[in-house]
Amino acid sequence: MPLRSDWTGERCPIARSLEVLGDPWVMLVLRQAFSGVRRFEQFRDQLGVAENVLSKRLSTMVDAGLLRRVPYQDQRRTRHEYVLTETGADTFPIITALAQWGERHRPHADPGIRMDIVHRSCGHESTTADFCSHCGQHLTVEATSWRKSWRDPQDLKLTGAAA
Amino acid sequence: MPLRSDWTGERCPIARSLEVLGDPWVMLVLRQAFSGVRRFEQFRDQLGVAENVLSKRLSTMVDAGLLRRVPYQDQRRTRHEYVLTETGADTFPIITALAQWGERHRPHADPGIRMDIVHRSCGHESTTADFCSHCGQHLTVEATSWRKSWRDPQDLKLTGAAA
């Protein structure tokens, strides 16, 4: 555990959240899960994270109810992938707010590089996390894309909780 | 630094945010700053954090533009306190979303202990972070209280960026 204290019994819900979400690798695994990643090797390669670090985080996240392990058939054997639960997908406003704060206050050195939150239902970018700043509708995972200036195509449809 | 990687140059703004906000002590210092804490001893005592850990975080947060050092006169000498900048206060939706997620998904073992986000302008609790879920108005720091069931009085008015 990267945390220096046990905050699970804290009266403050911010501290209780941070007990699991205060680990940056957990947040980046969530980001990849929203991006549609489900398999260990994809998380590892896309995050550039050591296998033991990743294993530990995935298992913490399953225990905390953020991810669910789902079996799939490899050519040779049964393996598992990791999908978002409703609890995991409900971190979406936190992730979105982090993205928006980062673009506002820690822009990339190259001004051509940015990621915007796009509310596909209205087609506009949103600068707020719970409700679209353009149309006011609830900004669900399913109706949101991440528009990455460096990507082709730029818009990535997000993935929420698995059925 | 608690982070295992340098994410300042990442294209993704979530990673750039996590470079500073991915440290749970930083988030808890922000929580105390929103609660009106300004002085080193208060942060230390209320967070139960070691002085060297706290010093390091405060200096990181000043460097990152989240806090500003302001001199004040002690009986004997000039000392400094720490106030939120606009950049620091702009983490409010992230902090609020963490509190709401924590209450929903990691409730305290004692169901009588909870903290709600109260939008004072309309007088109702909000379950969303950017805009009040009851009246739809923007949920500013200045119009928000934290209602702590264990506190007397229960409602704590929050403090935003210092003028």
Architecture overview:
2 copies of one chain form a homodimer. Chain A has 163 residues and is α+β, with helices and mostly antiparallel strands. Chain A has 2 domains: 13-88, Arc Repressor Mutant, subunit A (Orthogonal Bundle); 91-157, no CATH class. Chain A is built from 6 helices and 6 strands. Chain A has helices spanning 13-21, 24-34, 40-47, 51-63, 86-89, 92-105; strands at 67-73, 78-84, 115-119, 124-126, 144-148, 155-157. In chain A, the strands form 2 sheets. Chain A has a 4-stranded antiparallel β-sheet with strand order 4-3-5-6, covered by helices on one side. Chain A is globular. The two termini of chain A are 30 Å apart. The interface between A and B is large, with 58 and 58 residues.
Task: Give a concise summary.
With 163 residues, chain A is of the alpha+beta class.
Descriptors:
homodimer; 163 residues; 6 strands; alpha+beta; 36% helix; 2 domains; four-stranded antiparallel beta sheet; two-stranded antiparallel ribbon; 6 helices; globular; Arc Repressor Mutant, subunit A
- Structural class based on helices, strands and sheet pairing of chain A: alpha+beta
Specify the CATH homologous superfamily of the largest domain in chain A: Winged helix-like DNA-binding domain superfamily/Winged helix DNA-binding domain
Stretches of chain A where pLDDT is under 50 for at least 5 consecutive residues are: none
- Rg of chain A from C-alpha positions? 17 Å
Mean pLDDT of chain A: 95
SSE ordering of chain A: HHHHEEHHEEEE
Widest sheet, order of strands of chain A: 4-3-5-6
Architecture of the largest domain in chain A in CATH?
A: Orthogonal Bundle
Identify the quaternary structure here.
homodimer
Query: How many DSSP helices of chain A?
Result: 6
Q: Number of folding domains of chain A?
A: 2
Biggest interface pair, counts: A-B, 58 and 58 residues
CATH class descriptor of the largest domain in chain A: Mainly Alpha
Per DSSP E runs of 2 or more residues, the count of β-strands of chain A stands at 6
Shape of chain A: globular
Named CATH topology of the largest domain in chain A: Arc Repressor Mutant, subunit A
Largest sheet: number of strands, sense, barrel closure of chain A: 4 strands, antiparallel
Provide the helix percentage of chain A: 25-40%
